[in-house]
Each structure stands twice: as structure tokens, then as C-alpha cells.
Task: structure prediction
Amino acid sequence: MHSHHHAPDGATLRIALFAGMVEIAGARHVEVPWAGGTVADARRLVRAAHPTLAPLLDRSAFAVGSHYVADDAALVVGDDVAIIPPVSGG
Result:
């Protein structure tokens, strides 16, 4: 029997936002339910939770700590995840 999967104990992945994303989301962080997965999964969840971020999100990089990570990198609850939007020239 398939249970629709949700994170154990309401685990959430906390993701820091930067620059213009903060203004759009109206928050410095977004939290998405997390049962494990990759950057690509996180990207999809953030897009679903905050559709207004989608255009920026598609061009943004994800970082864990101070290192950029690829879309296939695994993320775990507690990771210091940030979304770094493209730097525009003003």
C-alpha cells in the first residue's frame, strides 16, 4: 500500500535566500518538507511552495556551506543550504 510520502517527524529542509529572492519571498529563509533527496528535488519543492521565485530559481545556484553544489548532489536535513541568485549588474 502506497503512503504518500512525507518527511519523518515533519522534517524540513531550511534554505537561505539571498538578494532579490528575499524581497520576492518576503522571508530570509524558506522551509520545505524533506525526506531526503537532491538539489533538483529541493529546487522543485521551493518552486512549488513559492511560484513567484520560479524565474529566478531556474537561474540560481545552490550552495551547501560555502560550496556550490550540482543539481544531483544529495541534501540532508540540517545542511546549511542557500540559493544564490545570479548577480546582475544593477
The longest helix spans residues 39-49. The longest strand covers residues 12-17. The chain has one domain: 8-84. The beta strands are 12-17, 29-33, 37-38, 61-64, 67-69, 74-75, 81-84.
